[in-house]
Design brief:
Order of helices and strands: EEEEEEEEHEEEEEEHEEEEEEEEEEHEE
Largest sheet: 11 strands, mixed
Strand content: over 45%
CATH topology of the largest domain: Jelly Rolls
Shape: elongated
Distance between the termini: 47 Å
Helix content: under 10%
Structural class: mainly beta
């Protein structure tokens, strides 16, 4: 057997070509895990004797969902007046301490302060699904809106997002209109407190700010099934590479059951190491798997699929039935270390207690892994 290792041009890891036989022998293509959070493709050359073929190797990706919740971490200095104590403003909307935004404005004058969020833990290429913000603040006094404006609004840098919410003497929470966001805009996410004396004599404007909570729901991509363990137990196998795909795949791998009384069949497919932030908490993992049991289901006592972290079973096994449809596998709760250590899909079957030599097999199309977590 000859082996050639080709580094991926994008991201880390390599493509491995294993060639057996001669002439019309088999070339097996495997890859390290995709850590780019997106699909990648590369053209490679395969040469046997005087024949050379160009082959495009594509490694797909799947959606991983995440959630971020944060509060202001810094603020600007207002052009006039004061905003103090600033430490009290660096808090969530549940805070009971407050900062005072104090301005004395002549007719037509305005004042503002920006409070900035740190969204750096959201992957740079994430697709933003939704943004919400709850803020707690109120004004010391109210006035006719034609003479005094007191507002709070989200901004992406200097660009207003959504619409402003008027600040009154009511200290209830403000559920802000946030509009739509991109990941790049979240890099400059901030909250603006604004006051303007539209007309009339000089007046003092006092706004009390307790804190705000910015919540972002997003998704990004990681690698799907990238390889399988060679030490499987089966009567025979065919087209194992066909299952290196998601649950929407249309071709399948076949794993024929080991024959004989109480015979065990077992194979592990790998999702690869996942680059999940080490501070991620409340991690839940689930999997959509398209696999079915072909022939002789009544002749087995166990036919199941389950997620593993290395050699440790996670969550609950799901029965592989004879219906050719995708089904869900519950992965339970995980730590970041367990995810980054490698996620596996295990197919497992046990024959009944009799000498059965029927030709039964798993038909695996692929699996899609979903991870949900917060920081």
């Amino acid at each position: 057997m000859a082996t050639t290792v080709i580094p991926w041009a994008d991201g880390t890891g390599s493509i491995t070509l294993d060639y057996t036989g001669s002439g019309s022998g088999t070339v097996t293509v495997t890859s390290d895990a995709n850590n780019l959070y997106t699909s990648r493709s590369q053209v490679i050359s395969v040469k046997a004797g005087t024949i050379t073929r160009q082959v495009t190797v594509t490694q797909r990706a799947i959606a991983v969902q995440g959630s971020f919740a944060g509060y202001p971490v810094s603020c600007s200095r207002p052009p006039t007046g004061t905003f103090a104590p600033t430490a009290n403003a660096m808090a969530s909307s549940n805070s009971t301490d407050r900062a005072s935004f104090d301005s004395t404005l002549s007719s037509g004058a305005e004042n503002y302060v920006y409070l900035y969020f740190d969204c750096s833990s959201i992957p740079a290429n994430a697709t933003i699904k939704s943004v919400s913000c709850i803020a707690k603040c109120f004004a010391n006094s109210t006035s006719d809106s034609s003479t005094l404006a007191q507002k709070i609004q989200l901004f992406a840098g200097s660009t207003a997002k959504g619409s402003a919410s008027g600040i009154t003497t009511d200290s209830s929470l403000h559920d802000l209109d946030t509009g739509t966001w991109t990941r790049a805009e979240l890099q400059d996410a901030c909250l603006r407190l604004y006051a303007k004396n539209i007309s009339g004599s000089s007046t003092r404007v006092l706004i009390y700010f307790y804190g705000a909570t910015l919540t972002v729901e997003y998704e990004y991509e990681v690698a799907i099934l990238t390889s399988y363990d060679s030490g499987y137990s089966a009567y025979s196998v065919s087209n194992l590479d066909n299952a290196l795909a998601g649950a929407d795949n249309t071709s399948y791998a076949r794993i024929y059951l080991t024959r004989g009384a109480n015979a065990v069949t077992e194979i592990f497919y790998n999702f690869g190491s996942l680059n999940v932030p080490s501070e991620a908490t409340t991690i839940s993992v689930s999997c959509s798997c398209k696999c079915y049991f072909n022939k002789g289901l009544s002749q087995v006592v166990t036919s199941e699929a389950q997620l593993y972290s290395g050699t440790t079973a996670m969550g609950t096994a799901s029965t592989v039935a004879s219906s050719n449809t995708a089904f869900d596998i519950s992965g339970g709760t995980w730590t970041a270390a367990q995810l980054m250590g490698g996620v596996k899909l295990r197919l497992y079957a046990v024959r009944a207690n009799k000498d059965d030599t029927s030709s039964s097999d798993f038909r695996l199309y692929g699996a899609t892994l979903t991870i949900t977590y917060g920081q």
